[in-house]
Amino acid sequence: MKYPLISSRLAARLTILPFVVIALTIFVGCVLWSVQLSFTSSKLLPNSDFVGLDQYIRLFNTTRWIVSLKNMVVFGVLFTSGSLVLGFLLAVFIDQKVRAESFFRTVFLYPHALSFVVTGLAWQWFLNPALGLQEMVRVAGWESFTFDWLVNRDFAIYTVVFAAIWQASGLVMALMLAGLRGVDPEIWKATKIDGVPTWRVYLHVIVPILGPVIFTSVILLSLSVVKGYDIVVAMTGGGPGIATEVPAKFVLDHLLQRANIGLAMAGATVMLLTVIAALAPWLYLKHVKKGANG
Amino acid sequence: MTMTQSSSTSSLNKPKKIISKERIAIYLFLIICSLFFLLPLYIVLVTSLKTMPEIRMGNIMSWPETWNTDAWVKAWSTACTGLQCEGVSVGFWNSIKILIPSLFVSIMSGAICGYVLSYWRFKGAELFFGIILFGAFIPYQALIYPMIKIFATFGLYGTLPGIILVHTIFGLPIMTLIFRNYYSTLPSEIFKAARVDGAGFFGVFFHVLLPMSTPILIVAVILQVTGIWNDFLLGLIFGGRENMPMTVQLNNIVNSARGAKEYNVNMAATFLTALVPLLVYFFSGRWFVRGIAAGAVKG
Amino acid sequence: MQNNTNTAHVSAKDLSVSFGKVDVLKKLNLEINKGEFLVLLGASGCGKSTLLNIFAGLQEATDGEVWIDDRNVTYMEPKDRGIAMVFQSYALYPKMTVRGNLSFGLKMNKTPKDKINELVDYAARVLQIENLLDRKPGELSGGQRQRVAIGRALVRKADVFLFDEPLSNLDAKLRSELRVELKRLHEELGATMIYVTHDQVEALTLADRIAVMKAGVIQQLGTPDEIYKEPATRYVAQFVGMPSMNFVTGKIINTSGGTYFENGDIKISIDEYVSKQPLRDGQTVELGIRPEHVVLDVEGFNTFNVDIIEKLGSELIVWGKVGSTSLTLRAEPESSVASKEIRKLSFKSSGLNFFDPETGLRL
After folding, report:
1. Which residue of chain B is at minimal alpha-carbon distance from A10?
2. Distance, CA of B158 to CA of B168 (rounded, Å)
């Protein structure tokens, strides 16, 4: 820099410096360190014994990891599409000039303010076969009624999906509603004059207009899929058995309890790649758009 | 942010007295959905007010025969997590202890970064902002182990300053983003005027910009209060035994307690944990939605 | 209380600014005299605001220096340069009262309280905003806001006042009112004023000297009269003046009977034109002539097909053609010209300008 800094510019740089250092150390340095550890044989303590892709090979031969990945996919697909559909419907129905609109909005969105732990525990209690929904129906007279998904290996993951949708669809609703309110009212007038049925307008006109909002929602939802940890820990603890394990929990368990750093970091690296893959289309679009705008 | 302002947008105004089938279906759908959304909260609440024998009778939905607040008292002050029996009150105070400084430090950090990025461009600013944004998307799992090591080196691991720093770091992306976006909407000439008037780097920020930042400060407070209060993972790992936040304590009470489960106590503890964000939510109203919109920008 | 000695000489020495490959200013030199009202005139993107921001210390130059009197201020904070600045969007602090806005700079300088009050009251009196002192900017009209913004500059007792398009956001009537007021203010204060605008009327009415800028270069520096009458480049010629100067491309013809400009439609004797360098026979040139120098004249040699007439009250603007050459001319409001008429016209030789079609420079 051949031009000397005037004093307040210097103050600005000195102030931002610690944040630059933090960003570089944490968001770059730590990530690289994690990736590096995934190529070592680190167990309880980190070492620099390079073992190539051994940890990854081991990872993908670990049943628990494979189950975790499968769960993430099942959870991801169902949770994202479920929250999108429910959130969209809620927004559309609220947008029909209903009375008590703000009441409905408040009710649909409040779960979003809660901790995943709270959500998980509340649903865990409700779906508890011994004293929850199943027992209630049985006491009421239908004695053969069975709803034991929470403790059923094959279905437990769906209860987590259910609880997560409950928590997240309000967020989608809020985003979609803002999008709907931004739609040019003239479009509605035009379709009314053309005599297009309302549901068709929503499907063929409004949904495409809401494209960016839907896109944003999908990104937000898929990020919470990859990060999903709290709700599983609180609701099922990964069980029964390993039926509801997820990658986030796999990594932390191997890191904190099983003292297998190398394997955990291999898992973390796979998670990171998943996020990057999920973001890639967004980054691509943003880049292309920028390019188009000159 | 404009959820009620335009009531005339979606359907055309028609003076109608008769309630059509269509309207009935709309309200029916909304009411059923409302019940679905309210159900867990209702169940948590009524369970917490019942006695254990009443709970064992099996109707989870029934209204409590008498309002019994014993479970609340127990959940607050004597419920056990493993060996300790101090209730969620310890967690509550820990969470307050974490929340208040974290709130202040993380919002100030975000505001300063946003301010610098908006008005004091420096070499590499774009890259810095890119890294910060990337930080919003990195799964914690890919950061935590090295962070533990670094924090341990500086004696911060498992301490209050440590957990405050962690919340500041993980809050930095979203806070920086919303403040940067907000400041870039303000006319840059105000900044210039203040500079000519003799305000330096901090003078401009504290005397001129901060007083103009009320709306975004409210959004930031809402985002961070709910975010930090509801955190589980970071508190679990970085808080240490002394600073277990309420969410961690709650999970311990419910999921790792031995012996017969006291569901009423569990649900009282759950409700108590949910109370702070719920109050923030109900009192902040439209600002909460603004916060969501601001937070969603990062997507 | 008033003291008229606050004034300073400002100079830019070889100032360059570039963002990557884009040069905003190119080795710019400019001397501004003590007490002068200098206008930087140009279209948006010409670098005039950048230059002003560099004078203010709000932007860094890539190269070069700024001097105020005998001080090199290039590396100084804005507050240490003895400048005050007024902005297009007024840039008032929204959360402070008018009094707060006026006194903010003084507070930053740690001026004693009673001195602050004295200065604020003085500025309020000069600008007639005494009754607004306790209001917030949001409660003021555009004109009032700009008065406050000028007041904020006034209390600083600066040697140099910088104006960044201060009147652009105001409606036409207010603009002309404040223009007069600024002129008076300049005469009263005697301070150096540097004023950025894209509005040539502001430039011509306010300036002692105008610097016309284009693409980071000063095209011409001169009094309003010089700029208007002897534009140094084709760009200056077409930028200043409303309606714009007529331009006709043609050739120089040297005959024993004299020198002419000719383009097939018109032929003008240019013996009286004082050129910087001799015009060669057959040389292609661009003739520039202002609408007031094209006159309807029954004895004129050129046949003019009137197309449209704009009635502006104080004058008429007549659009039409000689052959295929389009021309605009100014006429008296009582003149009888009507559209679609055919008239004769002639050119006043005092209004001729010739430019090189390649370089745009005056010949």
Report:
1. B201
2. 15
C-beta atoms of B37 and A122 within 8 A: no
At B152, list the tokens. 């341990």
Give B187's contacts in chain C (Cβ within 8 Å).
89, 91
Strands C160-164 and C192-197: parallel
Q: Is B247 within 8 Å of A122 when comparing Cβ atoms?
A: no
CATH number for A66-292 (one of 1.10.530.10, 3.40.1190.20, 3.40.50.720, 1.10.3720.10): it is 1.10.3720.10
The fold of the C246-355 domain, in CATH, is OB fold (Dihydrolipoamide Acetyltransferase, E2P) (2.40.50)
Residue B95 CB neighbour total at 10 angstroms: 27
3-state secondary structure of C61: coil
* Chain A partners within 8 Å of C60 (Cβ): 3, 9
| Range name among A134-143, B128-137, C119-128 with the lowest pLDDT average | A134-143
**So where are chain B's domains?**
21-68, 89-296
> Which H or E element spans position B225?
helix B214-230
What residues of chain B lie within 8 A of the CB of A104, using their CB? 30, 33-34
Cβ–Cβ < 8 Å for C145, C102: no
Task: Give yes or no for a contact between C4 and C188, defined as CB atoms under 8 angstroms apart.
Answer: yes
Q: Do C77 and A7 count as a contact with CB atoms less than 8 A apart?
A: yes
Q: Which CATH superfamily is domain C10-239 in?
A: P-loop containing nucleotide triphosphate hydrolases (3.40.50.300)
pLDDT digits (tens, 9 = 90+) for B234-293: 998 998 888 889 998 888 888 876 667 788 888 888 999 999 999 988 888 777 777 777
Query: Tens digit of pLDDT per residue, chain A (294 long)?
Result: 344 556 788 889 999 999 999 999 999 999 999 999 998 888 878 887 788 888 899 889 888 999 999 999 999 999 999 999 999 999 999 988 888 888 898 899 899 888 888 898 888 888 888 777 887 788 777 877 778 788 788 888 999 999 999 999 998 998 888 888 888 888 888 888 887 888 888 888 888 888 888 888 888 888 788 878 888 888 888 878 888 899 999 999 998 888 888 899 999 999 999 888 888 877 777 666 555 443
Q: Quick one: CA dihedral B51, B54, B58, B64, positive or negative?
A: negative
| CB contact (8 A) between residue A16 and residue B9 | no
- Per-domain boundaries in chain C: 10-239, 246-355
The class of domain B89-296 in CATH terms is mainly alpha
User: Does the beta-carbon distance from B202 to A11 stay under 8 Å?
Assistant: yes
Query: Helix axis angle, B214-230 relative to B89-119, nearest 10°?
Result: 140
What is the DSSP-derived secondary structure letter of residue A26?
I
